């Protein structure tokens, strides 16, 4: 494991804790919106395309490197359209540099995390959509933080663009130099920040210079099961993968593990997911954290198999990454293997997630919590 030095928090960081949104950024706007803003600033509209090419096409943030813009105007345009949204607090790497976790401080002192994962055939980033989370899942570090605020569209996009730049620099050896996949599985419930997350997806998938040019099929949006939002997402004409964080096949247990289940029960959540699959043709990913002696019993595997058999779904079992002091722990490997066997015997496609980042507080919220507890950084999101 390698670690970059921590950046000390500013003396007034505690006073900066407020739920205000960040300054406007070009990633908040589509290309016509950027052109209109540049024109309002007294510059020709094509300057918006130039700025966008630097940010999305070349992954450049430094105005000094934007030499195709006149020196007299580049700093002013950058200040208006490329303000700093993410300040690095800590970056950690493990797996010989193939996994890199970043902790960011936002303009109001909130902390969020994102992770880059390099594989031989792809580079994936996991990004946050909220500072903290309001879903209160008891086994999740972020869920215990409470919600500080939603992230802006640009704050979401900027995580991916920054880490795309890391990949492009060649820092992830043994992986392609281009970011190809984005998963909304970091801090927060993406569909609780619906409009900004959908705008971020569109920005990530729009071709440069309007966006990052990723394939919609390489974007995954997770949810604990906000049924109206799932149904709304199905009507967006997007081809992203829906990942449903189920974690229990029965209402009695899911009411405890995923409190939103008290509003929308398993049957209704799955019905919305099947509606999404039918509308988009995309297989739903069923996320299931394996928690020792809680949700890993053979009968629950059998029940899950009956619920999913014949559906356009894939189960992604997640070995729990326990947080310090938590009563929750990962299922033993023999129990995990038996769970997999029973699901596959039911005809349900099942894999076990690669456990990346355990050395670097890999579970969402752990790095933010550690930084906050050490006094190195300050945030309202103290998972």
TrEMBL record:
<dbReference type="InterPro" id="IPR040072">
    <property type="entry name" value="Methyltransferase_A"/>
</dbReference>
<keyword id="KW-0408">Iron</keyword>
<feature type="binding site">
    <location>
        <begin position="188"/>
        <end position="189"/>
    </location>
    <ligand>
        <name>S-adenosyl-L-methionine</name>
    </ligand>
</feature>
<dbReference type="InterPro" id="IPR013785">
    <property type="entry name" value="Aldolase_TIM"/>
</dbReference>
<dbReference type="InterPro" id="IPR058240">
    <property type="entry name" value="rSAM_sf"/>
</dbReference>
<keyword id="KW-0819">tRNA processing</keyword>
<dbReference type="Pfam" id="PF21016">
    <property type="entry name" value="RlmN_N"/>
</dbReference>
<feature type="domain" description="Radical SAM core">
    <location>
        <begin position="119"/>
        <end position="359"/>
    </location>
</feature>
<dbReference type="Pfam" id="PF04055">
    <property type="entry name" value="Radical_SAM"/>
</dbReference>
<keyword id="KW-0411">Iron-sulfur</keyword>
<dbReference type="InterPro" id="IPR048641">
    <property type="entry name" value="RlmN_N"/>
</dbReference>
<feature type="active site" description="Proton acceptor">
    <location>
        <position position="113"/>
    </location>
</feature>
<keyword id="KW-0479">Metal-binding</keyword>
<feature type="binding site">
    <location>
        <position position="140"/>
    </location>
    <ligand>
        <name>[4Fe-4S] cluster</name>
    </ligand>
</feature>
<comment type="similarity">
    <text>Belongs to the radical SAM superfamily. RlmN family.</text>
</comment>
<dbReference type="InterPro" id="IPR007197">
    <property type="entry name" value="rSAM"/>
</dbReference>
<keyword id="KW-1015">Disulfide bond</keyword>
<keyword id="KW-0808">Transferase</keyword>
<feature type="active site" description="S-methylcysteine intermediate">
    <location>
        <position position="364"/>
    </location>
</feature>
<keyword id="KW-0698">rRNA processing</keyword>
<keyword id="KW-0489">Methyltransferase</keyword>
<feature type="binding site">
    <location>
        <position position="222"/>
    </location>
    <ligand>
        <name>S-adenosyl-L-methionine</name>
    </ligand>
</feature>
<protein>
    <recommendedName>
        <fullName>Probable dual-specificity RNA methyltransferase RlmN</fullName>
        <ecNumber>2.1.1.192</ecNumber>
    </recommendedName>
</protein>
<keyword id="KW-0004">4Fe-4S</keyword>
<feature type="region of interest" description="Disordered">
    <location>
        <begin position="1"/>
        <end position="22"/>
    </location>
</feature>
<feature type="binding site">
    <location>
        <position position="321"/>
    </location>
    <ligand>
        <name>S-adenosyl-L-methionine</name>
    </ligand>
</feature>
<dbReference type="InterPro" id="IPR027492">
    <property type="entry name" value="RNA_MTrfase_RlmN"/>
</dbReference>
<dbReference type="InterPro" id="IPR004383">
    <property type="entry name" value="rRNA_lsu_MTrfase_RlmN/Cfr"/>
</dbReference>
<feature type="compositionally biased region" description="Low complexity">
    <location>
        <begin position="9"/>
        <end position="22"/>
    </location>
</feature>
<feature type="binding site">
    <location>
        <begin position="245"/>
        <end position="247"/>
    </location>
    <ligand>
        <name>S-adenosyl-L-methionine</name>
    </ligand>
</feature>
<feature type="binding site">
    <location>
        <position position="133"/>
    </location>
    <ligand>
        <name>[4Fe-4S] cluster</name>
    </ligand>
</feature>
<keyword id="KW-0963">Cytoplasm</keyword>
<feature type="binding site">
    <location>
        <position position="137"/>
    </location>
    <ligand>
        <name>[4Fe-4S] cluster</name>
    </ligand>
</feature>
<keyword id="KW-0949">S-adenosyl-L-methionine</keyword>
<comment type="function">
    <text>Specifically methylates position 2 of adenine 2503 in 23S rRNA and position 2 of adenine 37 in tRNAs.</text>
</comment>
């Amino acid at each position: 494991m390698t670690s970059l030095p921590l950046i000390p928090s500013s003396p007034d960081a505690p006073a900066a804790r407020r739920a205000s949104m960040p300054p406007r950024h070009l990633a908040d706007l589509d290309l016509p919106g950027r052109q209109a803003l540049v024109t309002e600033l007294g510059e020709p509209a094509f300057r918006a395309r130039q700025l966008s090419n630097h940010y999305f096409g070349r992954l450049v943030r430094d105005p000094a490197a934007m030499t195709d813009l006149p020196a007299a105007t580049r700093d002013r345009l950058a200040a208006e359209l490329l303000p700093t949204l993410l300040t690095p607090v800590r970056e950690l790497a493990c797996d010989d540099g193939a996994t890199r976790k970043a902790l960011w401080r936002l303009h109001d002192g909130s902390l969020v995390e994102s992770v880059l994962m390099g594989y031989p055939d792809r580079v994936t980033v996991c990004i946050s959509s909220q500072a903290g989370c309001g879903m209160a899942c008891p086994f999740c570090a972020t869920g215990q933080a409470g919600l500080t605020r939603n992230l802006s569209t640009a704050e979401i996009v900027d995580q991916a663009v920054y880490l795309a730049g890391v990949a492009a620099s060649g820092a992830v050896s043994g992986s392609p130099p281009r970011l190809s996949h984005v998963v909304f599985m970091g801090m927060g419930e993406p569909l609780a920040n619906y409009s900004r997350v959908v705008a971020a997806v569109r920005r990530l998938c729009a071709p440069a210079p309007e966006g990052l040019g990723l394939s919609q099929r390489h974007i995954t949006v997770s949810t604990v099961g906000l049924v109206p939002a799932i149904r709304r997402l199905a009507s967006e004409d997007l081809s992203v993968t829906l990942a449903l964080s189920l974690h229990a096949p029965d209402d009695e247990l899911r009411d405890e593990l995923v409190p939103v289940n008290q509003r929308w029960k398993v049957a209704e959540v799955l019905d919305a997911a099947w509606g999404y699959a039918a509308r988009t043709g995309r297989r739903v990913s069923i996320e299931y954290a394996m928690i020792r002696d809680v949700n890993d019993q053979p009968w629950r595997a059998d029940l899950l198999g009956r619920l999913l058999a014949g559906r356009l779904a894939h189960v992604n079992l997640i070995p729990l990454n326990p947080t310090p002091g938590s009563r929750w722990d990962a299922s033993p490997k023999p129990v995990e293997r038996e769970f997999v066997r029973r699901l596959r015997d039911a005809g349900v496609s099942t894999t076990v997630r690669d456990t990346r980042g355990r050395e670097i507080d890999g579970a969402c919220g752990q790095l933010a919590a550690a930084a906050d507890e050490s006094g190195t950084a300050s945030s309202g999101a103290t998972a």
